[in-house]
Amino acid sequence: MEPERKRSGSTLKKGRKRRLIPSKVVGAAEATRSHWDLEEKQQPIAKKARLSTVLFAENCEVTHGQLCELLKYAVLGKSSFPKPSWCQLFHQNHLKNVVVFILQGLSQLHFYKFYLEFGFLRKAFKHKFRMPPPSSDFLADIIGLQKKQIIGNLPKAMEGSLPFASSKVSINLQKDPIIQKYGFKKVGLTRCLLTKEEMKTYHFPLQGFLDCENFVPTKCNGSVTDNSPLFGLDCEMCLTSKGRELTRISLVAEGGGCVMDELVKPDNKIVDYLTSFSGITKKILNPVTTKLKDVQRRLKILLPPDAVLVGHSLDLDLRALKMIHPYVIDTSLLYVREQGRRFKLKFLAKAILGKDIQCPDRLGHDATEDARTTLELARYFLKYGPKKIAELNLEALFSYQESQEPRNTAEGVQRLNTSVLECLDSVGQKLLFLTQEADASALSSSKNCQTIKCLSNKEVLEQARVEIPLFPFSIVQFSFEPFSPNLTQEMNKRIKIKWTEMSTVYAGPFNKNCNLSALKRLFKSFGPVQLMTLVLETHQPHLCIQYEVLEAAQLAIESLDGVLVEGSCIKVQRPVTELTLDCDTLVNELEQDSENRGTIYLSGVSETFKEHLLQHCSIFLGLEAMILPKDLKSGKQKGYCFLRFKTFGSAQRALNILTGKDWKLRGRHALTPRHLHAWLRGLARESRLPGVRVIPPPSEQEAWQMLNVDHPKIAAWHWGRKIEKLYHNLCPGTLCLILLPGTKRVQVNPRLLHLPDK
User: Fold this and answer.
1) How many beta carbons lie within 10 A of that of residue 648, not counting itself?
2) Could you give the CA distance from residue 106 to residue 719 in angstroms, rounded to a whole number?
3) What residue ranges define each of the domains in the chain, with the CATH number in brackets?
4) Per the database record, which ranges form the RRM domain (predicted)?
């Protein structure tokens, strides 16, 4: 898209030279992948990245490796990685950010124990899965770090020079992204400036933004023309207790001389000098007295009113300086690539200028060298124009450079085994990792990871608000105290009993001479029955029916409560216990769960139902998946199914048809997603006789403690609200995942939720 150009100034006249500043400045789903591909082709207008609702519906368990597949594909897209094997991410090139929230210490048990408290998570996140128990380093698994250690480090940059356009490679210049943005003719300086809208898109600090309230403007508000002076800028940062802070600034004038090269002492305690990147050590910084405010004051004096700053990922430098400057050229965006990817400065220096920078034998980067390189890249672009750059065929050069690296014989396996960090590094980007001081992970010591360690969850939250917009990929880890093993066992027992009692109904009273066989057939028509007993303790007989699924019990209540059956007006209700007192509220909220909104439950389906439905698929618009549960022992199809549709409206229309006179099925909207069924099956079976209490009532002291703000129920509600506010601050086009990994100690299955279409 052609950006707006509203900068003041005129085109450079022929023969007129631009003013230079001297060196020193004075002053089992049934939907298949073919269905996914067809869906993508049928929706060319949709431009938002989104995750297909047809996911791992049959097994509903996602491995760490499969999650890693999705994350790598989200970073690089199909040009570099195959599509994930278990899901479909549409319009990946419109994906702008990936954010992973990890609630360490919480699990699927917490999610369903405090289901009503996690209101935002269950309503906003459409896809939910189970995962295997976490390993000793859960984070390393999901981003592929352990695989990286097996196959070795990233290939180093190729030695020697790169081939240039003289190789006579046939190039279609029309399709080059640089030509598409700038055209064939040479452009002036003002054409290379980022517009205000572009600066907003790429998270440059701007006046009026909430996260820039304390930023200092450079006071450069003069009229910029094509002969305004250029200044190369590069900053080095360290990590402090408050986040990233400036440790070095280099400013290079267009003449090539360094007009400012200062070490800066951060205001807060340094927790990581990032020496491998910055070259800064404790010994170097100890005697420094210059502060950030001193640098800001000097820059305001040094820069003329129409100064243009040039840098590579310049938004990060300006944020480190806590300064706002309106006229910028970012070489990572000037040499534009497809799908929003960026070339690294080291590659551009070699490919365009034929020079080696950031040499591996040197400790850290040379800020002055980097600043001078960005300046030279901008001048090269202005001198030779977009056509010359396009003829260099940078994408081919980049691919050639990669092809010259020593490769594993199993090259395809090596590509698949690269970590998320390596994927980010290949496009010149870093991963942000926010966590608490006490949490240890191999991720925090990785070179391409910007780790910020905090003292509390509250500080993690505050840092996340500021730092997430600055990175394309962020992992934010909150830490909570897990349930003890004994309490976990007790909670599992309570949850199992709760769902069993919610799936149980009492029906009656019936006449003493009622047709028991007919009654059994009637109640079995609502769904699979695990246990049906005749209750004779009452004046007139009742039936106790324990269903396999919650939907069947709810359907029986809705269909038969208050209805005349076998000559008696019966009441159908659940048992009233301390675990079912909030049952009506819970059922209503389950129906509103985002994963259940487009899914319907049907009972009474035959073995030929699938074929019959597919023959009439034209009347069931929006059908995405058909889930036909089977008996684990016999392998036979059970008499019920779930149908998943794109929208709630499509599901409602299908339900009306399928429960009508032609199909004669019983059904309602779904209440329990597949992953919940799988999880409950994994718990030890629990049951209790009616009226028998297996859970002792809490003492007065214990009951009082439950009202304390530290109680897990209160914490679930509190942090659910906090994460909701943080989520709403994410930019559009964000793939957001929330992981509840549990603990290895008690082997609790994690809980995963994700929503790419922010």
Assistant:
1) 15
2) 12
3) 177-403 (3.30.420.10), 500-582 (3.30.70.330), 597-670 (3.30.70.330)
4) 503-577, 598-668
Instruction: Round to whole Å and give the CA distance between 550 and 603.
Output: 12
The pTM (predicted TM-score) of the whole model is: 0.56
Q: Which of 248, 220, 253 is nearest to 235 (CA)?
A: 248
DSSP 173: G
Q: How far is CA 728 from CA 123, 207, 270, 335, in A?
A: 14, 21, 31, 32
Q: Residue 434's closest CA among 400, 465, 401, 480?
A: 465
Which tokens belong to 383? 């001198």
Residue type, 14: K
- Burial (CB < 10 A; 0-12, 13-18, 19+), residue 520, is middle
| Strand spans (E) along 633-677 | 640-645, 666-669
pLDDT along the chain (758 residues), means of 10: 37 46 40 40 54 54 82 78 74 85 86 84 80 77 62 35 43 82 92 92 87 89 91 91 89 86 92 83 91 94 93 93 95 85 88 81 76 93 91 79 47 58 80 82 77 91 90 90 80 87 94 90 94 90 94 96 92 92 91 87 90 83 83 80 90 94 92 74 51 45 48 78 88 88 50 47
C-alpha distances out from residue 609 to 8, 35, 404, 524, Å: 69, 20, 56, 18
